[in-house]
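dumping this here so i dont lose it
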């Protein structure tokens, strides 16, 4: 009876007590599953195996004293998780899903004798959700579990937060802890996972007390890595999000002059032209990366910088892809110092996975397609960050005479009162613009053309001349300051992103978050409220400020300057009394 309902890969849902019609395997293994685990209770109408469904017939899973209704939302969650593995695993067999035995046990178990509306697993998931929303500490969560056990002795619940985390990990909500050298030289990962000392600076991996290792090994730093692949697969596990993952192809703007999503931009389109095989399947995932530092201790005087690295999926429509629930935390880089030039050390696990997702991909179940499984690939299109973070990610220093990453070695700059100033912005205006011949800016006309555009070959040639530097902050190794040669320009390193096979061909590799940069500038201590008012064209109070003083230097407005007998024109002029005028705003 069930044979006609086998899918195109020979898989069928198994109604045994362990699979509960959630996991699918090959048809020839059905008999051994039933013999080994027994037939599931309550499955009287075979709606998954050809028998038509009728009203008021529900399927239950037997618990200790009754049953958990299949309307429990955790059935859908486990169906998504297990179906991914079952469809991607062509082997199947009775032992294919042993890792989910604890989840099935918690799903079959009633929370409390006689309470069939909540399974033990459902209650635990909701309790963990409350912990995150309300920022409970692990200790407070443990004490709550103890109180529940004391008040309800027969409640079926885990003993501690540690046990709850172990169970959640099996649902794909876990992460990997990777030890890091105290000087950020290397990760104790893969080939270094068994070492007790750093392969670069030879510092101990563990914290020492009085020169000796304590009884329990405690690492100096721990990098938290959240694998990307399983979460990308989860986006295709439900039909709703699986359809949204095609929006960049089906919902993009038809007007060539309108850009409402990155798919309408030149960089995306050029990427598709260079990689037609990747672009051929609209389900392949396009990612963007954002990174920045923050102080987890709020406004306390303690100086600490922790860096989250977040990925966003640009397959989704613009009103969804930037929502918090669709942003994926991939790395949590520990402090107390900013990673700086050693950012590549921490990005290693993510880059390795991105290379795997590009070259081999992952077998993924597409809930919105009749074909079932497809080979999902993913590509990182660009990064989004402020200027300091851009320097850490790209390798091009944002300081010095060549700070502009676009102008590159042609950056126009000069030294003014002990600081580097950048000029030549009028070059970007049209050639017949009246500001090109205006002398009020610096007393000169502008005749230079916009800066040249550096090709991929030009950038790669510059990177070829960059010397390999030692990572880390150890004063005898990576922490030694090295003077760059003239042929290295402003490059400090060749970014780890160039290990991605497609990275060199991307038109726009690093995007600047303008709103973030503007916020940083406006919060700078040197910017006074008077200067903010003068710089705001929409502020009607500007006319009431004839002048302002910034860092001891007096600036006057244009109206005030016109009324003066002596004009500044960029030259300081002494006024009456102790005043000196330096220019106009």
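and the seq i came up w/
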């Amino acid at each position: 009876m069930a044979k006609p309902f086998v899918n195109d890969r020979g898989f069928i849902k198994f109604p045994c007590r362990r699979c509960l019609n959630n996991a699918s395997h090959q048809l020839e293994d059905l008999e051994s599953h039933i013999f080994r685990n027994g037939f599931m209770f309550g499955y009287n109408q075979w709606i998954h195996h050809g028998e038509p469904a009728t009203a008021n017939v529900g399927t239950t899973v037997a618990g200790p004293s009754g049953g958990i209704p299949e309307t429990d939302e955790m059935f859908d969650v486990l169906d998504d998780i297990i179906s991914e593995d079952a469809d991607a695993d062509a082997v199947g067999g009775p032992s294919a899903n042993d890792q989910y035995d604890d989840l099935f046990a918690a799903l079959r178990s009633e929370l409390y004798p006689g309470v069939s509306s909540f399974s033990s697993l459902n209650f635990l998931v909701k309790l963990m959700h409350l912990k995150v929303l309300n920022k409970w500490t692990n200790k407070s969560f443990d004490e709550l579990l103890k109180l529940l056990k004391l008040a309800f002795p027969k409640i079926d619940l885990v003993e501690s937060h540690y046990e709850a985390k172990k169970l959640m990990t099996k649902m794909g909500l876990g992460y990997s802890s990777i030890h890091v050298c105290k000087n950020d030289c290397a990760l104790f990962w893969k080939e270094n996972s068994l070492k007790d000392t750093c392969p670069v600076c030879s510092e101990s991996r563990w914290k020492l007390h009085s020169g000796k290792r304590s009884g329990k090994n405690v690492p100096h730093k721990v990098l938290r890595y959240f694998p990307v692949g399983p979460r990308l697969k989860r986006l295709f596990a439900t039909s709703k999000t699986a359809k949204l993952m095609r929006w960049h192809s089906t919902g993009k703007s038809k007007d060539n002059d309108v850009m409402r999503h990155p798919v309408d931009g030149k960089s995306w389109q050029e990427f598709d032209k260079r990689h037609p095989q990747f672009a051929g399947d609209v389900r392949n995932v396009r990612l963007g990366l954002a990174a920045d530092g923050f102080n987890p201790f709020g406004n306390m005087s303690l100086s600490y910088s922790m860096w989250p690295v977040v990925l966003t999926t640009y397959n989704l429509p613009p009103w969804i892809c930037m929502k918090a629930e669709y942003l994926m935390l991939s790395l949590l880089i520990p402090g107390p110092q900013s990673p700086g030039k050693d950012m590549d050390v921490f990005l290693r696990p993510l880059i390795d996975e991105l290379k795997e997702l590009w070259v081999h991909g992952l077998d993924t179940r597409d809930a919105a397609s009749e074909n079932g499984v497809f080979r999902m690939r993913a590509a990182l299109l660009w990064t989004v960050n402020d200027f300091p973070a851009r320097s850490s990610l790209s390798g091009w220093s944002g300081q010095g005479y060549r700070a502009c990453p676009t102008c590159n070695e042609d950056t126009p700059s000069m030294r003014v009162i002990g600081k580097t100033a950048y000029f030549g912005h009028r070059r970007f205006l049209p050639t017949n613009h009246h500001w090109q011949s205006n002398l009020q800016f610096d007393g000169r006309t502008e005749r230079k053309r916009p800066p040249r555009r550096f090709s991929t070959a030009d950038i790669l040639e510059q990177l070829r001349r960059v010397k390999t530097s030692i990572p880390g902050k150890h004063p005898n190794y990576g922490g030694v300051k090295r003077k760059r040669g003239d042929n290295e320009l402003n490059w400090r390193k060749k970014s780890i992103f160039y290990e991605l096979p497609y990275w060199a061909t991307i038109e726009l590799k690093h995007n600047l978050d303008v709103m973030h940069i503007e916020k940083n500038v406006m919060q700078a201590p040197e910017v006074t409220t008077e200067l903010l008012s003068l710089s705001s064209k929409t502020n009607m109070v500007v006319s009431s400020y004839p002048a302002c003083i910034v860092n001891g230097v007096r600036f006057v407005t244009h109206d005030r300057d016109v009324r003066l007998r002596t004009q500044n024109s960029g030259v300081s002029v002494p006024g009456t009394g102790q005043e000196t005028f330096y220019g106009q705003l």
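Confidence is low (pLDDT under 50) at residues 55-66, 87-97, 537-543.
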